[in-house]
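Retry 2 of 3 after timeout on previous attempt. Resubmitting C-alpha cells to design endpoint.
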C-alpha cells in the first residue's frame, strides 16, 4: 500500500517547472487557486484502501506511476479516420474536440448559436473574462477532501466552457470529444469543464472519451454544471478508452429551483475507472435523474460513486445504476442520498443491479440513506445475480443457441439504461458497442 508521497513529489516538481514558464500568468487569480490546490494535493496524497470512500478501489497503480502532465497542445497523432469514428454518424451537433486535454481548433466545429450563448474552450474564456469565469470555475467541485480534484485543479488549463443566458434553448446537442493520443510516454490529461445555464434554458451535452495508440495514460477530468431555475439539461457520458487507460471522472451538479437534470454515464473502457457524481438540489422543486451502465471484462475495475444532496423541500431524485461484469472484473457502487432537515416532501429512489457473467466477477455495493427530515419518501435497493436458467432454457427451447440466448438476456438487462439516452445516434452507437462487448467477452471466455 502506497502513501502517495513519492507521486506528490513528482507532480510538485512538474508544477514548479511549468510555473517558471508562465511569466505574467503566474500572478493571476487562477494561478493562486492552482497553488492552493497543489498544496492540498500534497497534504492529502493519493487515496488508499484505508480511506472509507476508496476501500474497494486500490489506486496504487496510479499513485506509483510517473504520469507526465501535458502542459502544451500538440495535435499530432489523430487522423481524419480517427475523428470520423469518434463523431457519431447522423449526430447533428456542435463539436468541441480536446486532444490530451487541450482544445483542438482544427477538429472542432460550432454551429451558429443564439445570441449570448458561449461555447468555447476554458482557455479562451479565461482570456476574455478571467474574473467572470472564476465566479464558478473551481467553486463547485472543491478540492478540500478529494486528491484527484486537487490534482486536476493544480494543472487546470483547458476544457469546455458553455454558458447560456436566460430563456435559451439549443436545438442541437453539444458534443465534447476528449481524445488521449499516445506518444510512447505515460501521461496525464486534466480537462476541466464548466457549464452554466440561466433561467428557463434547455441543453443537451454529449461527452465522450477515446484513446488513440495509448499504452498507459491517466484521464483526470472534472466537470462543474450549474443548472439555473427551471432549466432542463441532459448529460450523456460515454467512456471507451483503451485497456491501458486509467480514468478518474468527477462531476458536480448544482441545481436551481424547478430545474431538471438527467445524467447517463456509460462505461466500457479503462483498466481502473472511478466515476464520481455529486448533485446538490439547491432550489425547491428541483429534480434529478442519474442512470449508469458499466460493462466490465478481463481484470477491469469500475467504481461508481454518487451523492445526491436534497438541500431544499419538494425535490425528487431517481437513480438506476447497472453493471454487467465478466471475466475477473470488479465493480463498485456507492450511492448516497442525503436529505437535509428542511428538505421536507423529498421523494428519492435509488436502485443498483448487477449481472455477473462469470464466477470470478465480483461487485461491492453500498447504498446509503442519510435522512434528517421526517416527511419524506425514500427507497433504495441492490440486487446481484446471474442469468436465470429458466429464461435461458425458454429461449433455447425456441431453437436459439446457448451463446445467443445469453447475449439476448444480457443485452436486455443492459439496454434498460441505454434506452434512456435521448440522443438517437448515440443510443444506436451504444447498442452496437454493447453487442460488440458481449461478443468480445464470449470469445475471451472460450479462449
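Retry 2 succeeded. Sequence:
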Amino acid at each position: 500500500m502506497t502513501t502517495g508521497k513519492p507521486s506528490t513529489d513528482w507532480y510538485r516538481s512538474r508544477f514548479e517547472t511549468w510555473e517558471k514558464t508562465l511569466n505574467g500568468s503566474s500572478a493571476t487569480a487562477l494561478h493562486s487557486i492552482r497553488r492552493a490546490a497543489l498544496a492540498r494535493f500534497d497534504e492529502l496524497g493519493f487515496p488508499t484502501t484505508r480511506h472509507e470512500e476508496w476501500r474497494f478501489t486500490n489506486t496504487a497503480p496510479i499513485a506509483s506511476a510517473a504520469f507526465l502532465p501535458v502542459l502544451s497542445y500538440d495535435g499530432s497523432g489523430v487522423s481524419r479516420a480517427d475523428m470520423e469514428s469518434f463523431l457519431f454518424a447522423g449526430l447533428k451537433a456542435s463539436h468541441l474536440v480536446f486532444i490530451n486535454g487541450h482544445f483542438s481548433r482544427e477538429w472542432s466545429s460550432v454551429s451558429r448559436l443564439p445570441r449570448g450563448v458561449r461555447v468555447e474552450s476554458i482557455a479562451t474564456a479565461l482570456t476574455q473574462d478571467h474574473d467572470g469565469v472564476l465566479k464558478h470555475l473551481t467553486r463547485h467541485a472543491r478540492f478540500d477532501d478529494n486528491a484527484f480534484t486537487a490534482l486536476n485543479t493544480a494543472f487546470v488549463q483547458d476544457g469546455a466552457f458553455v454558458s447560456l443566458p436566460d430563456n435559451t434553448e439549443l436545438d442541437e446537442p453539444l458534443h465534447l470529444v476528449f481524445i488521449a493520443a499516445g506518444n510512447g510516454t505515460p501521461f496525464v490529461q486534466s480537462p476541466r469543464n464548466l457549464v452554466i445555464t440561466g433561467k428557463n434554458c434547455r441543453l443537451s451535452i454529449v461527452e465522450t472519451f477515446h484513446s488513440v495508440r495509448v499504452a498507459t495514460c491517466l484521464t483526470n477530468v472534472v466537470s462543474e454544471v450549474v443548472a439555473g431555475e427551471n432549466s432542463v439539461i441532459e448529460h450523456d457520458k460515454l467512456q471507451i478508452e483503451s485497456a491501458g487507460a486509467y480514468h478518474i471522472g468527477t462531476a458536480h451538479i448544482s441545481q436551481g429551483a424547478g430545474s431538471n437534470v438527467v445524467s447517463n454515464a456509460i462505461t466500457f473502457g479503462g483498466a481502473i475507472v472511478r466515476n464520481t457524481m455529486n448533485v446538490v438540489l439547491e432550489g425547491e422543486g428541483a429534480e434529478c435523474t442519474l442512470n449508469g451502465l458499466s460493462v466490465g471484462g478481463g481484470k477491469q475495475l469500475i467504481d461508481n460513486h454518487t451523492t445526491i444532496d436534497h438541500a431544499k423541500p419538494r425535490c425528487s431524485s431517481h437513480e438506476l445504476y447497472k453493471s454487467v461484469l465478466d471475466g475477473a472484473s470488479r465493480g463498485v457502487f456507492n450511492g448516497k442520498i442525503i436529505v437535509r432537515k428542511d428538505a421536507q416532501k423529498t421523494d428519492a429512489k435509488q436502485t443498483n443491479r448487477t449481472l455477473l457473467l462469470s464466477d470470478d466477477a465480483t461487485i461491492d455495493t453500498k447504498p446509503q440513506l442519510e435522512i434528517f427530515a421526517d416527511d419524506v419518501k425514500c427507497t433504495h435497493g441492490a440486487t446481484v445475480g446471474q442469468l436465470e436458467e429458466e429464461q435461458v432454457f425458454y429461449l433455447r427451447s425456441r431453437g436459439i443457441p446457448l451463446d445467443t440466448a445469453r447475449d439476448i438476456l444480457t443485452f436486455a438487462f443492459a439496454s434498460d439504461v441505454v434506452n434512456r439516452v435521448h440522443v438517437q445516434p448515440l443510443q444506436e452507437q451504444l447498442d452496437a458497442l454493447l453487442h460488440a462487448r458481449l461478443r468480445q467477452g464470449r470469445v475471451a471466455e472460450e479462449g
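Attempt log closed. The chain has a mean pLDDT of 93.
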